[in-house]
Write a structure and sequence with these properties.
By secondary structure, the chain is mainly beta. It has one domain. Helices cover 11% and strands 29% of the residues. The chain has a 16-stranded mixed sheet that branches. Helix 2 links the parallel strand 2 and strand 3. Helix 1 runs antiparallel to helix 5. 50% of the residues are buried.
Length: 516
């Protein structure tokens, strides 16, 4: 038998009939990005929600949860702690702006239920810069109940002003080797507790794994590196079992979350940025109560941008609800560079009675924007589950909605046909391809967007019947062996976290609005 070699070039976004709308939209986006660059157009706050091409400034109606005054501090229910990396002290009590703590982890360790922590600009990496923050221990074997606390970032060093765009509070590890979330929060009541639920708030933080992930060093002349064009910060992300023979940048390559929660009660995650998270932006277990995830930016996360699963007994599922709204979700990447699975923007998971997903922007997600996943094992609970998906913008996703269940082929649904999906409802109106909006397109990193729009995968297979391994295998009646190489032109490359901030407030009433 002669050796043979097969090579296939596959354009990821253009590979399925379900992506026809995405194909058209990608071409339009590319033309608009190029034309805008030539004209020197400036970004404009607000956006056009009609069919025209001009952007307009507007104020969108947001819930009270998003109306955070620039200078006023939220009214605390317990004690108030202040944390400032630049002006705080390691030995301070943190009970006033003039005696701020230096370490966010110390403030969390000191705080009790119902306390509030205000955090000034800076990079917070835990005790002695270990690289992560925790409120309760991470892990399925943990028995820690954690604390119900509220954390607000984005303050000036003297706490006289709050502006999360200007005063960036981030968790951005460098040269850290750990396999835990950037931030883990446990907040549960003891079994049998029947009293009032607590509050958990994470507001105004930036979660960035980009300085710590392992990437191929950018090199547009070497296809192994997965560098699509000049201007993209790095080559492709290197999976935990990958070892390409090229120069590398970064430090750690294990799987881990940006923000992990095991909580119950009243939970809100708002005004945050999740960028370059190598194993979910948010991965949460939700007990009895309500979770709101609103006004966040998720960009270049792997596995899924946001996944929340119910963590209760069947009898308690009716007491669990989730709202995911006014978020911008871009460039979610699959589990591996082969693009086989994962890569969802948002996932409807089990164990939650009512989930409302609305007024979001889902764009350039490499598998699907939204997945309505699995079925409850209890048929009665599945029948009563409410998965609302309405008033969302979609563009350039491989699939807009994917319906998935064990043992059943997945179904791809474009935005215009979501009303036909019986698993979605009763609220399903207003989902559509995103209208033209130059301000929004210009806010996306141009090199990254163009690299994604031209994404290709080169797959090659080879077999040598006379190789030493195959000769031995034949003697013992074993299977013959071949090799396969998959080279994407881009895969989970690092996105510039500073530019993620530019995406706030670009489309009126859709996606992340400008925090006030």
């Amino acid at each position: 038998m002669k050796a043979f070699r097969i090579t296939a070039v596959v354009a990821l976004i253009l590979s399925t009939c379900a992506a026809v709308n995405a194909q058209v939209n990608l071409k339009a986006l590319k033309e608009k990005a190029q034309n805008a660059a030539k004209k020197g157009l400036e970004n404009v706050t607000g956006g056009n929600t009609g069919t025209g091409s001009s952007a307009t400034t507007s104020t969108s109606p947001l819930s009270g949860a998003l109306k955070n005054a620039a200078s006023a501090l939220p009214a605390p229910k317990g004690k108030t702690f202040y944390v400032s990396a630049s002006t705080g002290s390691a030995r301070a009590d943190g009970l006033s702006a003039s005696s701020a703590m230096k370490d966010l982890q110390k403030a969390i360790d000191t705080a009790e239920d119902n306390d509030i922590i205000y955090v000034a600009e800076g990079n917070y990496l835990g005790n002695l810069d270990r690289g992560y923050i925790e409120c309760g221990k991470f892990g399925s074997s943990s028995t820690s109940l954690g604390k119900f606390i509220s954390i607000y970032g984005g303050y000036s060093p003297d706490f006289s002003e709050r502006n999360i765009i200007k005063y960036v509070t981030k968790i951005q590890p460098v040269d850290q080797k750990f396999i835990v979330p950037l931030f883990n929060i446990n907040a549960r009541r003891p079994n049998g507790y029947t009293g009032p639920m607590g509050n958990v708030v994470v507001d105004g933080l930036v979660f960035d794994f980009g300085e710590n992930n392992l990437y191929c060093k950018a090199n547009v002349n070497d296809p192994i590196t997965g560098t699509p064009n000049e201007g993209v910060l790095t080559g492709r992300f290197i999976e935990p079992d990958g070892a390409p023979n090229v120069p590398k940048v970064g430090y750690s390559n294990g799987d881990e979350y940006g923000l992990h929660l095991d909580v119950e009660g009243n939970v809100r995650i708002s005004n945050c940025i999740f960028v370059n998270c190598r194993d979910y932006g948010i991965c949460a277990l939700m007990g009895k109560g309500h979770m709101e995830i609103s006004n966040n930016i998720f960009i270049s996360c792997r596995y899924a941008a946001c996944q929340v699963r119910g963590n209760t007994k069947d009898a308690d599922i009716p007491l669990v609800s989730l709202d995911f709204h006014h978020n911008t979700v871009l460039f979610t990447w699959t589990r591996t560079k082969v693009f086989e699975d994962m890569g969802q923007g948002f996932r409807f998971m089990n164990g939650i009675r009512t989930i409302n997903v609305h007024n979001n922007i889902f764009g350039c997600n490499s598998n699907c924007a939204v997945e309505r996943v699995f079925y409850e094992s209890n048929a009665a609970l599945e029948k009563e589950k409410v998965s609302n998906l309405y008033d969302n913008y979609f563009f350039a996703n491989r699939r807009d909605l994917e319906l998935a269940a064990p043992g059943v082929a997945t179904i791809s649904v474009p935005a215009a046909r979501i009303e036909e999906a019986e698993q979605i409802g009763p609220k399903f109106e207003g989902n559509m391809e995103m209208p033209e909006n130059e301000a929004f397109i210009n806010a996306i990193d141009k090199a990254y967007l163009e690299g994604f729009m031209s994404l290709t995968i080169i797959s090659s297979q080879s077999y040598n019947a006379n190789s030493a391994a195959n000769q031995v295998n034949r003697l013992f009646g074993l299977n013959q062996q071949g090799s396969e190489i998959v080279r994407p032109s881009m895969y989970c490359n690092k996105y510039p976290w500073e530019k993620a901030k530019d995406l706030f407030g670009k489309v009126a009433n859709y996606g992340a609005q400008m925090p006030e």
